[in-house]
Amino acid sequence: MKSIQPVVSKMLVSSINKERISHAYLLHGQRGTGKKYLAILLAKSIFCKHQERAEPCNTCRDCQRIDSGNHPDFHWIEPDGASIKKEQILHLQKEFTYTGMESNRKVYIVSDAEKMTTNASNRLLKFLEEPSMDTTAILLTENSQAILPTIQSRCQLISLRPLNNKQLIEKLEQEGLTEANAKIFAAVTNDLNEALEKSKDEWFANARKIVVQLVEMLQTNPNEVLLFIHTQWMPHFKERPQAQQGLDLLLLWFKDMVYYHIDQKEQMVFSYHYDKIEKAAMHWSKKHATDNLSHIMDAKRKLEQNVHPQLVMEQLTLHFQR
């Protein structure tokens, strides 16, 4: 059972081989720790008729139908809007009163389990209190403290650790990214899938270019910076989450500048722009670069407080020019 959580995978493999599958699991971990991936692997291992040492084949009819969400004895529940509602759990219970379509085994996954309403949680609790030997529940959450203690007590709790930066870079390189690009995406997110998506995202590629252009303009043509903000930056970073991503990239650039000043160049993220960082480090001293990091963090807080993004960027660039 290969995953980004080898220790947990090994434990689950051992349980499956010994036929000691728990009736309920609670997978807890930050976004990007592989909860969904691990849950689907576990479901496949339960249904796959061609598994080898608990490793699903990923090619049989059962495995493929789980991937497509069309397996009749595999059910996936996720928030309907902002929450998981009582009616969704009632529907699940109704489905589980029927005999399995192809075997007596049934598996259900509850994604974002912390978003269950109180009524939904209580219905699920009653479901868990009378477990069937042939039913496996897999609950996924980023916040196990938000799950009823009585539900937790009926589940095997599995805590998933996030990949450290080095591990994530290695995984990204295994997926075909260059070391330089892997460093950037690992710095932007600790979610392997999100990093891979960003690596193929044209918008994000252009965002990186615009950040570099802004820094260069601050050094060489400061009188045109506000025009650049109006004509280039704002049209690209239209939405507030996009504006936050732009500031995150800007933050990484000035961190690289500080790393250059303190001679920790191996820590630099924009390593393929080394000559430009070197030039920027001649323009901004270590103190100025550090001050600019504080100004960027302040700009991020203002965005969270719903200050207009254009005003935030105008104020930020004025700070850079002082």
From TrEMBL:
Catalytic activity: DNA(n) + a 2'-deoxyribonucleoside 5'-triphosphate = DNA(n+1) + diphosphate
Span of domain DNA polymerase III delta subunit C-terminal: 237-320
Pfam families reported for this sequence: DNA_pol3_delta2, DNApol3-delta_C
InterPro entries membership: DNA_pol_HolB, DNA_pol_III_delta_C, DNA_Rep/Repair_Clamp_Loader, P-loop_NTPase
Gene3D superfamilies xrefs: P-loop containing nucleotide triphosphate hydrolases
Domain of life of the source: Bacteria
GO biological process: DNA-templated DNA replication
Entry's EC annotation: 2.7.7.7
Keyword set, alphabetical order: DNA replication, DNA-directed DNA polymerase, Nucleotidyltransferase, Transferase
Keyword NAD belongs to the record: no
GO terms assigned for molecular function: 3'-5' exonuclease activity; DNA-directed DNA polymerase activity
NCBIfam families: holB, PRK08058.1
Name of the featured protein: DNA polymerase III subunit delta'
Species in which this protein is naturally found: Saliterribacillus persicus
